[in-house]
Amino acid sequence: MTKEVSISIEGLQLGSEEDSIVMTALGTYHLYNDKHYIQYDEKPEEGEGAIKCMVKIALTKIELSKKGVNSSQMVFDLKEETIAYYQTPFGNLSFDVNTTEIIIEESPEQLQVKLEYSLSSNASLISNNQIIIKIESIG
Question: pTM score > 0.85 for this model?
């Protein structure tokens, strides 16, 4: 895969009739020690600074982090439950993340990851979710 890539991240709340949320961007890709690293900038709302984003993909663990006005870090790990952190102007939030599936499909020009997980807080289920990440070479 080339260094310059296009990134598409689609999020869907399972069991909900609402449409999925899709984010697209251009970024960079690196493979290091059998881990895929994707960096990109997310376009912020008007008047906000740039949001720096990183996706780390390993066989049983995916990490999504954002640094900017609203920072967050989510770790999806098949081996253990994790905690997602969100920093907002109104305070910090955290949720328990239980990852149930990670499927990685890799070709010379594309990387696709499908993951399913549940979010809970105080031992109460909030939602079951799915994320599909597509990374494609440019040029």
Answer: yes
